[in-house]
Amino acid sequence: MIPEHARLVQTLSDEGVLPNEWRSAFENVPRHLFVPDQAWLIGNGRTCIDRSADEAGWLAAAYSDEPIITQWDDGSSSSEKPGAAATSSLSMPTIVAIMLRESLISDGMKVLEIGTGSGWNAALLGARLGDDNVYTIEVDSAVAERARDNLAKSGRKVVAAVGDGANGFPEHAPYDRMLATLSVSTVPRAWIEQTKSGGYIVTPWRIPLLNGLLLRLQVNNDGTAAGRFINTAVFMPMRSQRPSTDDVPIELDAPVEETSTDPRDLLNDDHAQFVIGLLVQECYEWTETTDQGTVQRLDDPSSGSWATVTADDTTSGRYEVRQGGPRRLWDEIVSAHEWWQGQGSPVFTRFGVTVDQDGRRLWLDEPGNVVPPAL
Hints:
The protein is an alpha+beta fold and 375 residues long. The protein folds into two domains: 3-240, 3-Layer(aba) Sandwich (Rossmann fold), CATH 3.40.50.150; 243-374, no CATH class. The chain has helices spanning 3-14, 20-28, 55-62, 93-102, 120-129, 141-153, 189-193, 263-267, 270-279, 329-342, and strands spanning 38-41, 47-50, 68-72, 86-90, 111-114, 134-138, 159-162, 175-180, 195-206, 212-219, 225-232, 257-259, 284-290, 293-300, 305-310, 319-324, 351-356, 359-364. The protein has a nine-stranded mixed sheet, with helices on both faces. A five-stranded antiparallel sheet has the order 12-16-15-14-13, with no helix packed on it. Strand 9 and strand 10 form a beta hairpin. Helix 2 (20-28) crosses helix 5 (120-129). Its EC number is 2.1.1.77.
């Protein structure tokens, strides 16, 4: 191993995220083989790393504990400047190690990875389980082709197919484990059907209000799957489940309401925000500075609902609220926060999901303790 590679492996081990059973795979799969000659560091102001201009800097970035963007705008943007939206990346080593650890994989298992990306994760799986036991599928043919090249450079012969990961990879099913390197808000039925009874699906779960959480579901004999949220995980959404980017128009003549609830208490606390994000689906939030002061903005593009709450130190405990659309987003958030406090402010790892033919049910502590659908 080159020194940069050795340092990364040792750091992951020292931090307790890389179990001993995965260490050999990380040692035998160099990450730099999966980094394009030109890419972008997310954690450094989206700075371009260019191998031809600064090979030492490029190599250092390759072995940093940072995610690296490898594609913008589904491949339509290829300049040195970042595009509008990152659409493929090389994941942060820490979260890669955590997801492999939390997949509870044992030697000899057959695994399907949804979202090949650079191919690094598939190579790690192949190094641990043997290439014949690992399958990976990627919706973007150009990304898949680069991944195949990267896998070949690393000496791995994992089967890397092109297709919509929402459909799984039925040709080689069933699988002991299904591992997604993209986020979903709805677990595709095919994933459950193609995972063995007793097997696990591990996937990032998209929460617009605060990025996302990592969910581990165990598949049951009756075709259902259930499991808990086990970690935070920020991943790009599955392309077939991408949220709308349409602007939600604000009704300028919407009536002004008042609330005594400071939105900063709800939306700036990670524990509260994670749980509110689980309960109030498809709600995006950001802060704007206007002539009226600091405003918390809430949007649901799918329904056209919106809310604004003025939140700064000049409002003296009373905050102006405006809401529009079929959903009352601010009211939903306040109700969710009150319910969460009434349950003793549980952390997100106490929540879980059951997925069946009728959809999904969110629960607290046990599958039978279902969270009310309308709070």
